Amino acid sequence: MQTITIQAGRFFELLKRDNISMWSIFEQMIDGEEKMLVFTDEQEQVLMRYALPASPEKLQEDQATFTGLFAEKLAKQSS
Question: Is the pTM of this model over 0.70?
Fold first, then answer.
């Protein structure tokens, strides 16, 4: 499995600047092989890891799961 390291701050700034969804970027990276995306902070400390799936269908499932989990976290923080 190929490992790709992404500096999270810069990545999300780029997405915001260009008004692009991270899921559309991930979909463009799919080539039939799983990849491990490692998001780091400015000090190169690992913030999170994501196993990019080999198919767009699995990516859509991941997106739905992520959206639900993120909404739950936001709701808990608001409480």
Answer: yes
Rounded Cα distance, 34 and 54, in Å: 5
Angle at 65 between CA 4 and CA 63, to 5 degrees: 50
| Distance in angstroms between the alpha carbons of the first and the last residue of the chain | 40
What are the residue ranges spanned by the domains of the chain? 2-78
pLDDT tens track for 3-32 = 999 998 899 899 999 999 989 999 999 998
Q: Tell the burial category of 52 from Cβ atoms under 10 Å away from its Cβ (0-12, 13-18, 19+).
A: buried
Residues 6+ apart with CB under 8 A from 18: none
